[in-house]
Amino acid sequence: MKTLPYREVHLDFHTSEAVPAVGDRFDKEQFKAALKAGHVDSITVFSKCHHGWAYHPSTANEMHPKLKFDLLGAELEACREAGVNAPVYISAGLDEKYARRHPENLVKGSPNAGHDFLNAAHYHLLCYNTPYLDYLMAQVEEVMQRYNPTGVFLDISAPRICYCQHCIESMRAKGLDPRNPDDVRRHGDMVYAEYCRRTEEVVRKYNPETRIFHNAGNITRGRRDHADFDTHLELESLPTGGWGYDHFPMSAAYSRTLGKEFLGMTGKFHTTWGEFGGFKHPNALRYEAALSISQGARCSIGDQMHPSGEMNMSTYNLIGKAYAEVEAKEPYVYNAQHIADVAILSAEAFSNRPDRNCPFDVGAARVLLEGKYLFNLVDQYEDITKYKLLILPDVIRVDDTLRAKLTRYLDDGGKLLCTGESGLALGEDRFVLDLGVEYEGRNEFRPNYMVPEYDAVNGKTAYVMYQPALNVKAVGGRVEALVEDSYFNRTPEHFCSHQHTPNNPGADRPGAVLTANTGYIAWNLFADYADKGSFHLKELALHMIDALIGCERSVYTNLPDRGIISLTKQETESRYVAHLLFAHTTKRGGGIEVIEDIVPLYEMKLKAKLPTSPKRAYKVEYDIESGALKQTELEFTYDSGYASVEVGKLDLHAMVVFDV
Q1: How far apart are CA 89 and CA 183, in angstroms?
Q2: Is the pTM of this model over 0.85?
Q3: I need a surface site. Which of 211, 302, 427, 524 has the fewest CB within 10 A?
C-alpha cells in the first residue's frame, strides 16, 4: 500500500433531515480552493452520516431527502482533479434513521436497559449481531462498487456489551452464559470480529489496496487482535474535546510499537466534534500538528462541513497555517525511527478493559514526559529487551509467563521499576521477583505519608500519599523513602481538620527500595500522580528512574515540564533529529485547555547520545513570514558518546539535526 499522507482533514457531515437544504451551495472549484488553502493532501469525505442518510444515489440506503445530486461523487471528482487522496467515511455503529425504524436491533447495554427516543437528542448505538449488519455491509459494498475509494473509515466501531435478544440467543447457541459478564464480553469480541471480517471481505472483493480503519475513539492497549483489523491507525485525540494535551503522546507511544502507520487526529474546533462556528487559535493547531509529527504520526484535523456544502475558508486558512509548516518539515520526519529508553508496561493492556484514561498508564506517561525520558507504552507482546528500563505501574500482577520474561530481561542487564502491587504474583500476595522487599500486608491508612531519604526540593518531611500502599520489609538494597502512617483514618465518628488526619511521626517502614537493577515504590504512585499531580510523587519516581538508568538516557535537555522532547533516526538520510516543543497552555471556561500565545524559551540546551561524533549539527525552524524552513548552524562538542549543543531560542517547535 502507498504510505499514508501527512496532511489529512477528517470532514464530518452529520446532517439532519430537518435541515431545509443540503449541498445547494457546493461548488467543486470552491472545494478545491479550500483544499489548496489548507495545504491538504488527503480528505475523508462521507458516504453515510450518524443520522443514517447517504450523500449519493443509493439502493443500499436512502439519499438525504434534501440533497439533489451526488455530493460524494462530486467531492471525489474534485479530489482527483486536485491530486488529493480521498478515503470515504461510513457511520457504522450509529444510524439514527435505521434505529428509529428498527429499535429491536439496538445495543442493549444491560439486561434491563431501555431506549429513550423522547427526552434527549442523541444517537442510538446499533448491534452488529442483528440484521443491521447485512444492511451496513450492503452500503459498504455499494461504495466500493461505485466509487472504489483509496480508503474506508468506519466510525463508532468497537466490541460491545450487549444483551439484546439476538445476542442472548447467540450466546446460548455458542455455549456461553448470558449471566456471566466474562462470557458476555467474550461474545462481544466475537461479534466485533465477525463485523470486521465481513468488512474486509466486502472491501477486498473490489480492491486489495483500499485502506480500512475502524474508529472507536481510542486504540485499546493490549488488543493487537483489534488493531490487526485495521490497515493503519487514526488516533482520535482532540485536546480541547476531553482528551487533553498529554493524551496524544501517550497514545502515540503505544501505537509506535504496533508496526503500523498512524495519524494523530485533532480538530479545528474550540471544543469538540460537531461545533459549528468554533475555531482554535492558529498557534494551537500549529503545535498539535508539530506534536503529531514529532511523535511519529501523520496529521489529521477534524472539520464539519456546513449543510449547504460550502467549505468554510476561515477553517481552511486556519488549517493551512499548520499544514504549510508540516509540508515544509516532512523531509525531516519521513521514515524516522523513534528512540525509546524506557517502556511502560500498560495496565490497560493487563486489565483487558478499554480505558483511554487508565490512571496507572496516564500517571506513568506524565512522569516520563515531564522528566524528559524517551519512552514507549507497551503491551505483554512487546519485545522488552530493546529497552533500558521497564516500568510496571501500580497494578501489574505477574503470572508465570510474565515472570519468565522479566527474569530473562533482568538477567540480561535490564532494569525494572515496580510500584504498588506490581511484582506480586497473580492471585497471591507474595513478590515473585527479587525487588529487595518482602510483602507484609496492606497499609490500612489512607492517606499515609512518604518521608524521603534523598535531597527533596522541599526537604526531608512527611509528604501526603493518597493512593493505597503495601507494607514491605527491606531484604536488600538501599531504602530511598520511608512510610509514615497517619494517626487514624477519617470517619464520621472521629476526624481531624478539613481533609485528613496528619502524620504520626516516627517513620521506620521502607516505602522505596533500590537495588542494583530494580526499584520498588510501595504506593500506587502513578495513579496518585494522574489524580493529584503532586510534585513529590514525580520527584520520587524520577529519583528512582535516575538512579537506575540516569547515566544511560539518550537525551538531556533543560526544557520545562510542559516541553516535549523526542529523538529519531533517519537511516536513509544518515542523521538523527531531535524535536523540541513547548506551548503555554491555559484553562478557559469550564476547564478547556487552550493554546494561544507563543511563549519563547531562551538558552535551551540539548545533549543527545549518538554512536559517533556528528559531522554537522544545525537547528531547523519554520519561518512564518517566508513560509520556508531556516537552518542555523550549531557548534557542538562530543564527549563520552554524547553530542552537546546550545539550541538557544525555541519558538513552539524546533528540530535539532545531527548529520552522522
Answers
A1: 32
A2: yes
A3: 427
